[in-house]
Amino acid sequence: VFPRPGPITTRLAVSIDPPAPGFLGRTVRFASTSLTFEVRRNKPELISPATPTPRELKPLSDIDDQAGLRYLIPVIQFHRRNPKMGDINPASVIREALAKLLVFYYPLAGRIKEGPGRKLTVDCTGEGVLFIEAEADVTLEQFGKTLHPPFPCMEKLICDVPGSNSVIGSPLVQIQVTHLLCGGFIFTSRIYHTVSDGTGMAQFLMALGEMARGAVTPSVLPVWKRELLCARDPPLVTFPHPEYDDVGKTGDNIMTINEMADKSFFFGPIEMAALRRFVPEHLKSCTTFEVLTACLWRCRTIALELSPEKDTRLMFFVNARGKFNPPIPIGYYGNCIVLPCVVARAKDICNKPLGFALELVMKAKSRVNEEYVRSTADLMAVKGRPHYKTDSTYIVSNLTRVALNKVNFGWGEAIYAGLPKDDQDIPGVFSDYMPSVNDNGESGIIVIIGLPIPTMEKFVKELKIMLH
Questions:
Q1: What is the pLDDT of residue 6?
Q2: Which residues, in sequence order, are bridge partners of residue 133?
Q3: pTM surpassing 0.85?
Q4: Catalytic residue (one of 82, 165, 369, 408)
Q5: Within its chain, how far is the Cα of 13 from the centroid?
Q6: Does residue 193 carry a catalytic annotation?
Q7: What is the per-residue DSSP string for 27-65?
């Protein structure tokens, strides 16, 4: 298994300074470090499909089995108590629904094998997925008026059984349901990225909610068809893919200092209007994602104080389902994502107007079409499924449209759903965009940023300049 780059020694979610008034007071969210609680876990269980399922081997696609996707995606969902559900145990409801759903998603109850050329295949053994029921001596209210990552005590809320963190031979889905003192509960799930992207994961969790509410079949039936995204014969790489170029080890990919700050930043209508003041006339058609990504890349690059001539890289995941003709079938839950990359010198990102970075983002995004995806799949086959490069890199994942917050197990939709914190294994490289609501009830985007504490201070300062 391709290892994700090394760990850091300590991670802190700390308040470096009180948030400044004005835009930044609305925007930055400092996690409380004082909240601690105990969690009592029941013994881990394996939940198998409710009825017998086919025993077969299902190869993953060449987009699925690239080295950079061989890890678990963690998602956390907070659910309030629902008086209408009385004393019904949500863990029992979800456990039963999971067994029924796995009849449809039976590959997820199997185990991954690695073959020649590091090619991955799912062995549909029906062994099941990991499930833990737990209790925590904390209430939802103690997490704050509005829920924003990073969340405290995450290691107690996530199903993490020793020996289950290798993509080869481990349960592909890992779930924990934690009961809270207030009658609400926290649902956390981890799914191996090799079998599903964010859209596919949301599809699975939405279906789990439907089954928990009494559905006999999911409203969207799962589609495997991984052969749709396998390399051509012979493979033909038709695009440059700097995201996989070997740039050598510069040491910039892992921030190994002892103290990191994880913070979430809220961008609502007021913040986005402030950022759009910097958009030049010929780029006014840019999307919220494009202008926000350009802004964060610029502020982060300035804060890192890189050498002016150094190349800095921006990558972002693009859901390519809508780029195919004929289209990728509805219900396809495998990876249908690519990671276009733009490269620019640090001095250009820092010193030129925002429009410079914004135009690079827009052009990279516009390049993604069916041929780009096929070129990526072919590159995987030709180059042995390389890991995307993280040196001097900022990677953005937009989860605002996958609707994780719409998952409903019968207690109502989640009041927060998304990633719980910055990536532990590659700290400070990833940012995830998720739908959220601020203290004023405004809808917007929450972004998790992880940086060393001194760098975070500079980042906040630069962001404040752009928002005022």
A1: 34
A2: 177
A3: yes
A4: 408
A5: 19
A6: yes
A7: HEEPPPSS----EEEPPPEEE--SS-----EEEPPTTTT
